């Protein structure tokens, strides 16, 4: 069943056409990759789904609900989470505090209780801390909880970004170039993590340049070029698709 | 009538542009809310009093020396007071406030608290059609136009000028392209202080010179920059002129008290409809 | 990191301070000292509320304008509508907050320093309204603002607001309560969310935080307290003038808030306190007073980057270092 449907979505930035009539159906529980040469509009598409960028035309439907006009932070509440490309973190805070940020929507600590210093609020805060710790450990950051985010090696910083997104307990997780910049060992480890997330029932939309990761992980691939969809299908179909090969070769001239 | 009012508006408007450009440049390039900028204008007035009024130098010479010296003071302020806090948001503001207090206090001690008038070197009037403009004002207007035009052309055609326009829009991008932020910052402070000092020297004979003019000047500058869009040089120029015209028109048709408000109503309406100003960029 | 335990040492220190402040009128007979303390107290309400805004990353230079809104509202409500001060006081806060919410809904779309520039313009616009709106007394302002109504306590005790003492306790209590509330907010999860927005609003949004909404909330809360401070100000001094709530007063509040130390709530309190006392101490210097004041401010920024609150710590470190270098000789 389609968890996410993109209907005829276009995005214009002034004169620049970033997306043109894009259609996308993401099946629940699957890993769906979106690939394409630079400037194809992949990140823009993720931003439109996340709500941080408003589409010029078209509809975004999540879990049967039209969320096209829904504010970005409310989409997180509906179960959509997205990671960032570069290290977008609370750099001056600890790993644990970063993950606690991600727990914002799932914590039981209310504002009034917290202001008044009630015991209930305090135990809710402790529970949130515990949950954040569990997330860190399950993703391989155990032992790093009290380190500053900026002190983390690059690969682990990406994992931290992933943890923050996971902390909101999303149904749909969008990964914006999760393994770009990682060495082969880290890449394999992260791929394993992503596969594990799928087995936990999380639907994943993956934007990546690393073809090995894309081919190895995806159940389905959509290819964009200059804002338009030029191909879609199983990894093997895409690998041999002439239009796709041309798009990638053409962009390098 | 209309032409007369327009001429008056243009004189004041150009002055506002001269003062505001400095604030705009420093704001956009060094990301500093420079409360002390108005003191450059204030010092410009005293410069003329000293060089032209007391030492008897030729007015043009006095203006040149005064403006250049104040431009230099601008560079020194950046180097010793602001550069240590490059990249931070709040400390430079505190430094600026401290400098504003320091400079006005020093001026008070050096030049006294009483306002002083300076005899203008230009006498007589010129007729333009049905309207009349005093030669004083004419000189101020023409000099201001020359300076503003020079800055505008510089900023549009030279490489440094390009850097000055690029940094407010995208600092990281500019740095990546190899722009030396410190050097451009010095230039911004130099040009800004110079222009404000010149404005002070130009308006001094027209009105009066005092140690307390700083706050008024920076205040006008901030209003103009808010209207035009912080970081936009063209925007500052248009906004300054606009404020000058609107003030002159409301002064003429409605008289004194309402004139203040006239300009302001315009500004607030614009800001309510377009918070980033007429030509402002998204975020600073 | 928020600690979930109660810091008994801190609590005890504050308790002692509070007790001290409560008993001052009993052994200090100089009424002028009480006056200075009250003036400082009112500034404390302004600086601590502005601090909340700064933790959210909202750089408002219009805080004095909202103080003025509260002051004028309170004066009008008590003078023209005959309301009791005790109702006008909270109402001033509410009206101030409401206007803040309205203006903020438009202006808060712009961030950081640019917002500061806009609030500067807005602050002046508000001052112009005070000067020119009919019935507000024009440039001369309002005079003979009534004292708060007498409060009746059980056992036939009535407090009338004549002389400095009743005002002192009024200001002290309101300042203490305001600071306590603002402190609790900053330490709570709400305060934490505010800091997330200041540090990285894109990340905060991706975690499901309604950035704009929280900015508005922070602005509303801060301006509520600014209004309260304004109301107190007006009824204590019994006169108001538009120029007292202009952009330079906002700049002063900003200075007082930041000079104490940017990272804690004691910063604004210390800043307001010290920078209100200093001009008083400098009165003797006459013409040189503004110069000394400016030098003090610049010294603090350059020598104490963490603000006035860090002075004791710094002195201790410096004393340790000089002791060490003496011992090693």
Written description of the protein model:
- The complex is a heterotrimer of chains A (253), B (284) and C (329).
- By secondary structure, chain A is an alpha/beta fold.
- Chain A has 2 domains: 1-78 and 172-177 and 203-253, 3-Layer(aba) Sandwich (Rossmann fold), CATH 3.40.50; 80-169, Rossmann fold (3-Layer(aba) Sandwich), CATH 3.40.50.
- Chain A has helices at residues 42-50, 72-78, 95-102, 111-116, 119-138, 154-166, 184-199, 211-217, 235-239, 242-252, and strands at residues 2-13, 16-27, 31-35, 57-62, 65-66, 80-82, 172-176, 203-207, 220-225, 228-233.
- In chain A, strand 1 and strand 2 (16-27) form a beta hairpin.
- Chain A is globular.
- Chain B is mainly α.
- Chain B has one domain.
- Chain B is 75% helix and 3% strand.
- In chain B, strand 1 and strand 2 (131-134) form a beta hairpin.
- In chain B, helix 1 runs antiparallel to helix 8 (181-206).
- Chain C has 329 residues and is an all-alpha fold.
- In chain C, strand 1 (151-153) and strand 2 (157-159) form a beta hairpin.
- The mean pLDDT of chain C is 88.
- Classes of the chains: A alpha/beta (253), B mainly alpha (284), C mainly alpha (329).
- Chain B binds chain C through residues 27, 31, 33, 35, 81, 84-85, 89-91, 93-95, 97-99, 101-102, 104-106, 108-109, 215, 219, 222-223, 225-227, 230, 257, 260-261, 264, 267-268, 271-272, 275-276, 280, 283-284, and chain C through 54, 59, 106-107, 109-114, 116-118, 120-122, 124-125, 128, 132, 247-248, 251, 254-255, 258-259, 262, 287-288, 290-291, 293-295, 297-298, 301-302, 305.
Which key features would you list for this structure?
heterotrimer, A: 253 residues, alpha/beta, Rossmann fold, 2 domains, 4-stranded antiparallel β-sheet, 40% helix, B: 284 residues, mainly alpha, two-stranded antiparallel ribbon, 75% helix
């Amino acid at each position: 069943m389609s968890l996410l449907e993109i209907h005829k979505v276009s995005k214009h930035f002034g004169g620049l056409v970033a997306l043109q009539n894009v259609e996308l159906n993401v099946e629940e529980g699957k890993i769906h990759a979106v690939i394409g040469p630079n400037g194809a509009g992949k990140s823009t598409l993720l931003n439109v789904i996340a709500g941080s960028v408003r589409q010029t035309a078209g509809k975004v439907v999540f879990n049967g609900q039209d969320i096209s006009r829904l504010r970005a932070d409310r989409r997180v509440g509906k179960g959509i989470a997205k990671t960032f490309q570069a290290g977008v973190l609370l750099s001056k805070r600890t790993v644990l505090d970063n993950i606690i940020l991600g727990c914002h929507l799932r914590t039981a600590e209310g504002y009034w209780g917290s202001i008044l210093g009630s015991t209930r609020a305090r135990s809710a805060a402790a529970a949130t801390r515990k949950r954040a710790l569990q997330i860190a450990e399950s993703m391989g950051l155990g032992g790093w909880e009290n380190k500053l985010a900026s002190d983390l090696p690059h690969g682990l910083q990406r994992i931290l970004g992933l943890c923050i997104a996971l902390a909101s307990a999303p149904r749909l997780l969008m990964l914006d170039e999760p393994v770009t910049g990682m060495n082969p060992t880290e890449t394999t480890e992260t791929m394993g993590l992503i596969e594990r997330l799928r087995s936990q029932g999380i639907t994943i939309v993956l934007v990546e340049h690393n073809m090995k990761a894309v081919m190895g992980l995806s159940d389905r691939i959509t290819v964009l070029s200059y804002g338009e969809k030029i191909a879609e299908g199983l990894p093997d179909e895409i690998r041999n698709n002439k239009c796709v090969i041309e798009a990638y070769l053409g962009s390098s001239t | 009538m209309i032409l007369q009012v327009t001429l008056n508006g243009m004189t004041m408007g150009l002055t506002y542009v001269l003062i505001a450009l400095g604030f705009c440049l420093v704001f956009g390039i060094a990301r500093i809310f420079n409360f002390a900028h108005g003191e450059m204008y204030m010092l410009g007035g005293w410069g003329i009093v000293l060089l032209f009024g007391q030492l008897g130098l030729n007015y043009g010479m006095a203006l040149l020396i005064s403006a250049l010296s104040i431009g230099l003071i601008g560079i020194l302020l950046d180097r010793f007071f602001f550069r240590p806090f490059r990249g931070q948001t709040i400390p430079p503001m505190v430094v600026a406030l401290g400098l504003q207090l320091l400079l006005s206090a020093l001026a008070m001690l050096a030049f006294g608290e009483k306002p002083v008038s300076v005899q203008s070197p230009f006498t007589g009037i010129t007729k333009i059609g049905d309207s009349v403009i005093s030669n004083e004002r004419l000189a101020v207007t023409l000099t201001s136009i020359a300076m503003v035009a020079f800055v505008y052309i510089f900023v549009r055609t030279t490489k440094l000028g390009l850097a000055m326009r690029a940094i407010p829009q995208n600092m990281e991008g500019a740095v990546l392209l190899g722009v030396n932020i410190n050097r451009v910052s010095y230039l911004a402070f130099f040009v800004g202080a110079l222009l404000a000092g010149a404005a002070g020297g130009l308006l001094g004979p027209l009105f009066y010179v005092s140690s307390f003019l700083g706050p008024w000047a920076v205040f006008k500058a901030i209003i103009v920059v808010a209207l035009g869009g912080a970081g936009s040089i063209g925007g500052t120029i248009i906004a300054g002129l606009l404020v000058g015209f609107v003030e002159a028109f409301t002064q003429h048709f409605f008289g004194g008290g309402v004139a203040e408000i006239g300009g302001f109503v315009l500004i607030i309406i614009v800001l309510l409809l377009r918070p980033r100003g007429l030509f402002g960029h998204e975020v600073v | 990191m928020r600690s979930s335990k109660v810091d008994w040492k801190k609590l005890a220190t504050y308790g002692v301070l509070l007790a001290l402040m409560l008993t001052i009128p009993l052994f200090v007979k100089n009424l002028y000292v009480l006056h200075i303390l009250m003036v400082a107290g009112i500034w404390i309400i302004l600086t601590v509320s502005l601090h909340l805004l700064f933790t959210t990353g909202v750089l408002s230079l219009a805080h004095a304008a909202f103080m003025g809104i509260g002051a004028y509202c309170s004066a009008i409500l008590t003078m023209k509508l005959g309301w009791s001060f005790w109702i006008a006081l909270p109402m001033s806060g509410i009206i101030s907050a409401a206007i803040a919410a309205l203006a903020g809904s438009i202006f808060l779309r712009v961030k950081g320093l640019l917002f500061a520039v806009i609030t500067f313009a807005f602050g002046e616009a508000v001052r112009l309204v005070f000067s020119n709106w009919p019935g507000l007394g024009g440039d001369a302002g309002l005079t003979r603002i009534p004292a708060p109504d007498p409060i009746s306590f059980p056992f036939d005790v009535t407090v009338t607001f004549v002389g400095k003492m009743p005002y002192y306790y009024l200001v002290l209590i309101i300042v203490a309560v305001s600071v306590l509330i603002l402190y609790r907010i900053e330490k709570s999860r709400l305060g934490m969310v505010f800091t997330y927005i200041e540090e990285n609003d894109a990340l905060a949004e991706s975690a499901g935080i309604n950035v704009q909404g929280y900015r508005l909330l922070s602005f509303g809360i801060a301006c509520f307290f600014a209004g309260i401070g304004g109301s107190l100000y007006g009824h204590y001094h019994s006169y108001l003038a538009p120029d007292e709530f202009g952009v330079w007063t906002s700049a002063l509040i900003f200075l007082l808030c930041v000079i104490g130390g940017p990272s804690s709530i004691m910063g604004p309190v210390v800043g307001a306190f010290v920078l209100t006392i200093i001009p008083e101490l400098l009165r003797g210097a006459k013409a040189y007073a503004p110069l000394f004041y400016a030098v003090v401010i610049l010294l603090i920024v350059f020598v104490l980057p963490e603000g006035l609150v860090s002075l004791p710590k710094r002195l201790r470190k410096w004393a340790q270092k000089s002791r060490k270098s003496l011992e090693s000789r």
